[in-house]
Amino acid sequence: MKERRIKIAGMGRALAGERLEFDGQTRYRLRADETLLDLEERAAGQALEAASIKIQDVDCIVCATATPLQAIPCNAALLHERMAKGLETPAMDINTTCTSFITALDVMACMVEAGRYERVLIVSGDMASAALNPNQKESFELFSDAAAACVLLRSGEGEGSAVLYSSQRTWSEGAHDTEIRGGCGLMTAFCMNGENREDYYFDMKGKKILKLCAKKLPPFIDACLKEAEIDRSEIRLVIPHQASRALGVIMPRLGFPKGTYFDRVERYGNMVSASVPYALSEAINEELIRRGELVLLIGTAAGLTSNFLLLRY
Amino acid sequence: MKERRIKIAGMGRALAGERLEFDGQTRYRLRADETLLDLEERAAGQALEAASIKIQDVDCIVCATATPLQAIPCNAALLHERMAKGLETPAMDINTTCTSFITALDVMACMVEAGRYERVLIVSGDMASAALNPNQKESFELFSDAAAACVLLRSGEGEGSAVLYSSQRTWSEGAHDTEIRGGCGLMTAFCMNGENREDYYFDMKGKKILKLCAKKLPPFIDACLKEAEIDRSEIRLVIPHQASRALGVIMPRLGFPKGTYFDRVERYGNMVSASVPYALSEAINEELIRRGELVLLIGTAAGLTSNFLLLRY
Lengths: 313, 313
Known about the structure:
By secondary structure, chain A is of the alpha/beta class. Chain A has a five-stranded mixed beta sheet with strand order 1-7-6-4-5, with helices on both faces. Chain A is globular, with a radius of gyration of 19 Å. Chain A has helices at 36-50, 75-83, 100-113, 137-140, 206-228, 247-253, 265-268, 275-285; strands at 6-15, 18-22, 25-29, 60-63, 91-95, 119-126, 146-154, 162-170, 178-179, 203-204, 237-240, 294-301, 305-312. The longest helix of chain A is centred in the C-terminal third of the chain and has 23 residues, at 206-228. The interface between A and B is large, with 78 and 77 residues. Strand 5 of chain A pairs antiparallel with strand 5 of chain B.
């Protein structure tokens, strides 16, 4: 695969305002006076500032989010209204659920490489709290509401920043292991009744997903590393999707022992599409990753989808 | 802009099974025993057959749809389950509402150009009927449920098929002129009550949209043609989004008189994301477009977004 010469020029992140504790784990949820758009706007503003560019300089706004704010229009149009009203910047959504940010980075690196765009703002974020089922303890205590954003530029002459390799796989035998069945086209809000109310909540079959991941992920990761011609030891830091507390069990099985990957599940839980860019932004801030070093973004998403993207930061 | 050497190798389309007439206009709606996934699967199957490839040969499945079937997972994972269960083909959604197909073609042409994918299945389709408001006559009588699909390949040596130029603009001052406010994150199904029930229906401010389009579209189209260095007379056929019966008024104002563009509003109405690929598929079938000829795909979408994509078929 030809490397795609892009650079993460700036990142930003924002947490919801209500802080909760579940059994030593901290989670954040939207307060009644804030919406996800507030968080997305804050994260995007920080990313622009860090990249030293203005929203007027951005030539594409991408919302890489798992869940819709409204069925129509797309999330990026609503964020555009907050940040870019009066401008003509194109806005689009890219969605592979929890790994949407990795997919968007993969896609937009190709668009930059093809000369279609040069300065892209990618914003991720979800409000899991809108659909958490209080009767499903495992998922109810897992998620946080947050947003994170990234400014992507074409790499300049002499800069080494690039997407070196990327891959995605979807195994739809897991399509119903993580889902919200109700609220949209297949089961509209009008269909809700006393019997099917639970269908409108987020529903996660944790053990089934773990089993499918245990089967599918190791050969996927191995195949990617082989095709990318990269040894695990060359990777400075792995940024996995912060899927659950099982991270500490799964990562070593993928050949990444403690210390080689970033784990903030205790501090934030699963932030859906914001997890990967939020973690990446923190790792950059804490100087755990420096320019020129290799970073691996990986994650699993409802689908079941998994993404692998190797970046020279 | 560098041309991106891709080829539409096959297309397919499917209409919902219930046929209605409104004032001389024919519309199609899903029967109780069918879902949008049935239509998408049919359209995609035709596209694969027309391209003489199998689903096993596809290296990416894209749902370019306006509305979610479920909030989680993405539409492409649910279509994957229908068509590709047991395979590992990556699946993703790309969404700019009604112009999602044009955006997906634009995006995936870049991914093919960058060497990331080679054989892409793009499927569009929406079930407007799930959210039409019987009290809003204009929109209630406008939409049809349908799906359309396309197989995109890298152009072979000596083939001229390519995306020659593409552009998108979003003017978010129109973000709330076409929307479904309720059902998703900002106003969940749980919030529905006797007072806000109308918010869960599709809501279209027809006159406001027309006014914004009349202001924004002519300079956009002119700028695109100029930048693409193409004269209107070189275009074999314009395939516009079949937005409404106003097509016959708007197109001449954009410099495309009757006979230069494809108009099937009377026959099908607005099929949301399926409109453009459905019309393109019909035009190819009727030999109104031949290999090597220039086709212009244009459209407006909730956002307000507009897309322009010039294709050498």
